[in-house]
C-alpha cells in the first residue's frame, strides 16, 4: 500500500534548521525520504543537523542533502540562497525569535527586529521563491505561528503580533496559490522545549512568565518531535486537501 505520509521524491527547504523545531523537522523529513536543503545562521549547529540527515539516509542516494549558512535578514544572502535552490516541493519557515517586552517599552527598533525575522523574512522568502518559479505545483508551505496569537501572555505583544500577521498572510497565500494546488498552512504551537525557551538569557522568556505559562499545559510542554510530526503531515500528500488553516498544538 502507498504510504501517503512518505516524503520520498520531495525536496524541502527548512529555515531555522540549526536549532529546535527546524532541526527536528529536517531530521524527520529526511527519515521520511525527503531531500533537504537546510539553512540557519550558526555554521557549527547547522552542520550538526546536516550530519544527522546523513546518518539516517538511504545509502543508495548519497549526498542528496545540502546546507546553506545565512542570516536571512540580509537580503543578498537570501538571494544567494534562492539562486542555489533546486525546485522545491515543500517550504518550512522555522527561523524566528522571541523576546518578552511589556507593551509600553516597545520601540521602533524592537518592532523592526521582531517583525524583521518573524514576518518579513518568511514573506519575502516565499514571494521571491514564487517569482523565481522554484516551487512545484502541489507544493506545501508551512509557517510557524504560536498559540499565543489566541491566548496572550505578558510581554508577548510584539512576538504574538508578528505571528498573527504571518497567519493572515498564510491564509491569503493559500487563496492566491490554489490554482497551482500549492498549499499554505500554519502551526500554532504552544510551549516547546527548545533553546528559544529553555536557556535562561536576555532573549528568552522571563522565568516568572514561563511559570505562569506552564500552568496552561495539561499535556505538559511539547518536544520538537511533537511539532515535527505535524510538519511531516503538512508536507506529505496525506494533507493534500488542507490549505489556509492553522493547527493548534499543545492542548491549551
Ligand atoms: N519553542 C516554542 O515554544 C515555540 C512555540 C511556538 C512557535 N515557535 C516558533 O517556531 C520556530 C522555531 O522556534 P524554536 O523554538 O525551534 O527556536 P530556536 O531553537 O531558537 O531556533 C530558531 C532558529 O531560527 C534561526 N534564526 C533566527 N534568526 C535568524 C536569522 N536572522 N536568519 C536566519 N535564521 C535565523 C536560528 O538560527 P541560529 O540558531 O543558527 O542563529 C535557529 O535555527 C520559531 O519561528 C518560533 O517562533 C516556537
Structure in a nutshell:
By secondary structure, the protein is an alpha/beta fold. It has helices at residues 20-31, 43-55, 75-84, 108-131, 157-177, 195-198, 207-214, 224-235, and strands spanning 11-14, 35-40, 66-69, 88-93, 135-146, 183-189, 246-249.
Overall domain count: 1
Order of helices and strands: EHEHEHEHEHEHHHE
Q: Give a short account of the largest sheet.
A: 7 strands, parallel
User: Assembly type of the shown chains?
Assistant: single chain
Shape: globular
End-to-end Cα distance, whole Å, is 36 Å
* Tally of DSSP helical segments: 8
Across the major sheet, the strand order is 3-2-1-4-5-6-7
* CATH fold name: Rossmann fold
Question: Mean pLDDT, as a whole number?
Answer: 92
The total beta strand count reads: 7
Name of the CATH homologous superfamily: NAD(P)-binding Rossmann-like Domain
State the helicity in percent bands.
40-55%
Low-pLDDT parts are: none
Coarse structural class: alpha/beta
Mind telling me the CATH class?
Alpha Beta
List the helices and strands and how they pair.
Layout: E1 11-14, H1 20-31, E2 35-40, H2 43-55, E3 66-69, H3 75-84, E4 88-93, H4 108-131, E5 135-146, H5 157-177, E6 183-189, H6 195-198, H7 207-214, H8 224-235, E7 246-249
Parallel strand pairs: 1-2, 1-4, 2-3, 4-5, 5-6, 6-7
Helix pairs in contact: 1-2, 1-8, 4-5
Bound molecules: NADP nicotinamide-adenine-dinucleotide phosphate.
NADP nicotinamide-adenine-dinucleotide phosphate is lined by residues 16, 18-22, 40-42, 45, 71-73, 94-98, 117, 144, 146, 189, 191-192, 194-197.
